[in-house]
Amino acid sequence: MIWRWRYEDANGGEVTDRPLPREIFTSQSDAESWLGETWRELLEAGVEQVTLLEDERVEYAGMSLRAQ
């Protein structure tokens, strides 16, 4: 299994117009830990929310990077 994050704008559209990390993880836990360490940098780069994918299956979608 391959886990990865899809970076999205506030409307849920994929952000592809700028260089962002394209990390690949071997577990959900590794992916979530990485996001916990880098979410601020992603937000500063214009990412508003993320979706976690296992291969092409959505584990969960539309998770905001902004404090609620």
Can you describe what's shown?
By secondary structure, the chain is of the alpha+beta class. It is 25% helix and 29% strand. The chain contains one helix and three strands. It has one helix at 28-44, and strands at residues 3-8, 49-54, 57-64. It has a three-stranded antiparallel sheet with strand order 1-2-3, with helices on one face. Strand 2 and strand 3 form a beta hairpin. It is globular, with a radius of gyration of 11 Å. The chain starts with a strand and ends with a strand. The mean pLDDT is 95.
Question: What is the structure about, briefly put?
Answer:
With 68 residues, this protein is of the alpha+beta class.
Number of strands: 3
Order of helices and strands: EHEE
Helix content: 25-40%
How many angstroms does the end-to-end distance come to?
31 Å
Indicate the mean pLDDT: 95
Main sheet properties: 3 strands, antiparallel
Keywords:
29% strand, 3 strands, alpha+beta, 3-stranded antiparallel β-sheet
Topology:
Blueprint (H helix, E strand, L loop, with lengths): L2 E6 L19 H17 L4 E6 L2 E8 L4
Antiparallel strand pairs: 1-2, 2-3
